[in-house]
Design goal:
Largest sheet: 7 strands, mixed
Distance between the termini: 40 Å
Radius of gyration: 17 Å
Structural class: alpha/beta
Number of strands: 7
């Protein structure tokens, strides 16, 4: 089992994509490698690179204190579990708590809404088109980064919106429900 932890100053970083480094730990809680955080630049392409790094390390669980809903949704869609911790806790406590199910973030809505993404008009709001050279690259996954079986699971496609007073399946457009 590989656990990824965004770290700043030797502790869990307060925000996932703003961490200085990403540490990767094995099941014995030993640091096996760490990398500078490619997402520290803050743009969509850099965040996509962070996701690729986590996938390349065959990460099973990511520990976060705070994470945006878009990145949380992408991690979950990639089959990576996300456990919530507190930067005040020691690394050993955080690693030992990864199996506590009450700490798991299981839906993208459990992350923070991206105010900057909305201000920019979404991934294509600045005149570019998603996935083209003019777009920001945040519109979704590259074709081979997430197996279609994960994206097409009935639990993802037919999720009810009963918690919002609507009894209809959700149609997803970049992790945001839309009316179709």
């Amino acid at each position: 089992m590989i656990v990824a932890m965004p770290m700043s100053r030797g502790r869990l970083a307060a925000h996932f994509t703003k961490a200085q480094r990403i540490g990767f730990f094995n099941e014995y809680h030993q640091l096996i490698t760490s990398f500078d955080n490619p997402a520290i630049e803050g743009n969509c392409r850099a965040k996509a690179e962070l996701l690729r790094l986590i996938q390349a390390q065959k990460t099973d669980i990511v520990i976060v204190q705070h994470i945006g809903e878009r990145m949380l949704g992408k991690l979950l869609a990639a089959g990576i579990s996300v456990s919530q911790g507190d930067k005040e806790e020691s690394i050993e406590v955080l690693l030992s708590q990864t199996k506590v199910l009450e700490r798991r973030l299981v839906d993208a809505s459990m992350g923070r809404a991206s105010l900057n993404h909305a201000k920019k008009g979404g991934c294509c709001g600045s005149g570019g088109s998603c996935g083209s050279a003019g777009g920001c690259g945040c519109g979704g996954f590259e074709a081979d980064s997430v197996p279609p079986s994960v994206l097409l699971q009935p639990s993802v496609l037919n999720k009810s919106m009963s918690h919002q007073g609507v009894d209809a399946p959700v149609a997803y457009g970049g992790f945001r429900p839309f009316k179709g």
